C-alpha cells in the first residue's frame, strides 16, 4: 500500500476498528456512505464545497449518522476527512481501508488482465494458481483488455506472470533472432 494521505487515514481507522473488533461493520458502513456520496450529487457538492463552513458540514454528517444508524467511528472518520479538506479522497480511503484489512488477514491482492471475460471456473483455477505461487489466500481483480490477442497476465505485487499470446509470440521471435 502506498503512503498516500488516504492510506494513512485508512490505516488509522483500521487500527481502531480492529482494536474494537468492528472491522467488518466499519467496512460495510464505509461502503454504504461511499454509495450515499456517489448517489446524491447535492450532498457531495455541499461536503466538497470549501465555501460552506465546517460546522454546517458537521451538522449534516452527524444527522446522516443518526438517521442511518452509523457507528460513531464512521461519523468521526468522515468528520476528520472534512476537517482536513480530504473528503474528496473518501473513495480512495475506502479502498485503502480494504487493503489494510486484507493485509491484516494475510490476503494478497492480485490483478488479472485477459483478452475476454473469463468464466467462473477459470477464475477459480487462476485463484488456485496464485495461491499455490504465494502460499497465501489471494483476492483477484479482473480486467478485460481487448488489445491482448489471447491469454492473460497475472500480477501479484510487483511480479507479473505473462501468459498472453503476445508474450509467447515475442518469446518465439527472440529465440528465432538468436539463431
Q: What's this model, at a glance?
A:
With 179 residues, this protein is α+β, with helices and mostly antiparallel strands. It has two domains: 5-102, N-terminal domain of the delta subunit of the F1F0-ATP synthase (Peroxidase, domain 1, Orthogonal Bundle), CATH 1.10.520; 107-178, Glutaredoxin, CATH 3.40.30.
Q: Biggest β-sheet, characterized?
A: 4 strands, mixed
Beta-strand percentage range: 5-15%
CATH class of the largest domain: Mainly Alpha
Question: What Rg, in angstroms, do the CA atoms define?
Answer: 21 Å
Compute the average pLDDT.
Answer: 90
Helical region count?
8
CATH architecture term of the largest domain: Orthogonal Bundle
The CATH superfamily of the largest domain is identified as N-terminal domain of the delta subunit of the F1F0-ATP synthase
Count of individual domains: 2
CATH topology grouping of the largest domain = Peroxidase, domain 1
Structural class, from secondary structure content? alpha+beta
Cα separation of the termini: 44 Å
Globally, the shape reads: elongated
Overview of this structure, please?
The protein is of the alpha+beta class. It folds into two domains: 5-102, Orthogonal Bundle (Peroxidase, domain 1); 107-178, Glutaredoxin, CATH 3.40.30. The protein has helices at residues 5-19, 23-39, 41-48, 54-67, 72-83, 90-104, 120-134, 165-178, and strands at residues 107-114, 137-144, 152-156, 159-162. Strands 2-1-3-4 form a four-stranded mixed sheet, sandwiched between helices. The longest helix has 17 residues, at 23-39.
